[in-house]
Amino acid sequence: MIQLRAIFRNASRHAEHCLSVKSRPTPRAWISTGPQQQHGTFYEFRTYYIQPHLNAAFLKLTNEKIHLRTAHSELIGYWSVEYGGLNQVFHIWKYDSYAQRASVRAALAQDPNWIEQYISKAMPMLSSQDNEVTYLVPWSKVQKPPKDGGVFELATFQMKPGGPAVWGKAFQAAVGTHTGSGYAHAVGVFHSEFGPLNQVHVLWWYESADQRAAIRHTSHEDARVVAAVRESAAYLLSQKSKLMFPCAFSPIE
C-alpha cells in the first residue's frame, strides 16, 4: 500500500510539472518588418504605364492640368523614366495620415474639373498603374538637390525580411559613404509598407547621366565605399534602378 501511495504521489508531481511547463508562455522571436516610423507621414509612389503612341500627349495634358491635382495634396516630384523602363512616369505624393489620403481621394472624386478636364482624358492613355506606400527610413529626410536640372536615379533594393531594424545600420553606412564622399546627393531613402515588402528605395540626384557613370567608376575604387557596400550586400536579395528626368511641373527638379 505504501509503495502504491508513493507511485501515485510521484505521478501527481510529474503531472503538475508537465502542466506548469505547458502553461508557461512560449518565447517568440519577432521579426520587425516595419520601418519603426515615429509619425504618420507617408509617401505614395505611383507609376503610370503609358500607351507608347500617347506618351507625349499624356505628358502635355498632365503639364497643363496638374494644378487641379496639387490643389488637393502635396506633390513631391514627377518624373519621366528614360532608362530602366519605357513610356512610364513616376511620381511621389506626401500625406500626413491615411485619413488625409482618404479625404483627398474622396474630394477628387467629387471635383468636376479634375474629372472632366483630366481623368476622363488621361485614363484612356494609360495601359496600367501601380502604387506603393512608403515611409522614410528613420535616418533620412527629403532633401532637394543643390540645384535645378540634372537626372534622378530611383534605385530599388529587395532586402531580406526584417526591415531597418535588421539592415538599417549597414544600409545607412553604404548610403553615407556615397553622400559623405560627395559622390551623390540622396533626395530620400524610403522603405515599403504596402506593395512589394522588404524593399528600400534610394532616390539619387546627379548633374547628368554621364556624371553618374563617371562617379560609379570612381566610387568603385574607393575602399570605404567597397567595404560599406559589401557589408550591406549581406542583406540584399536583388536590385534594380531607373534613370529619370524631372517634368517641367515637378516641385523637385
Please tag this protein with its features.
Alpha-Beta Plaits; NipSnap_domain; 8-stranded antiparallel barrel; 40% helix; Dimeric_a/b-barrel; 253 residues; disordered N terminus; Protein NipSnap homolog 3A-like; globular; NIPSNAP; 8 strands
Question: Overview of this structure, please?
Answer:
The chain has 253 residues and is of the alpha+beta class. It has one domain (42-246): Alpha-Beta Plaits (2-Layer Sandwich). 40% of the residues lie in helices and 30% in strands. It contains 7 helices and 8 strands. The chain has helices at 2-23, 55-70, 98-109, 112-122, 164-180, 209-219, 223-233; strands at 42-50, 74-83, 88-95, 126-136, 151-159, 185-194, 199-206, 236-246. An 8-stranded antiparallel beta barrel has the order 1-3-2-8-5-7-6-4, surrounded by 4 helices. The radius of gyration is 26 Å and the shape is globular. The termini are far apart. One of its GO terms (cellular component) is mitochondrion. This is Protein NipSnap homolog 3A-like. It holds the Pfam family NIPSNAP. It comes from Sinocyclocheilus rhinocerous. Belongs to the NipSnap family.
How is the quaternary structure best described?
Answer: single chain
Q: Strand share of the residues?
A: 25-35%
CATH class: Alpha Beta
Average of the residue pLDDT scores? 87
Spatial arrangement of strands, main beta sheet: 1-3-2-8-5-7-6-4
Poorly predicted parts: 1-36
Distance between the termini: 93 Å
User: How many discrete structural domains?
Assistant: 1
Percent range of helical residues? 25-40%
Number of helices: 7
Quantity of strands, as a count: 8
What is Rg?
26 Å
- The best one-word shape is globular
Assign the CATH architecture. 2-Layer Sandwich
Structural class: alpha+beta
Pfam family, one: NIPSNAP
Domain NIPSNAP: 43-141, 152-251
Family: Belongs to the NipSnap family.
GO biological process, one term: mitophagy
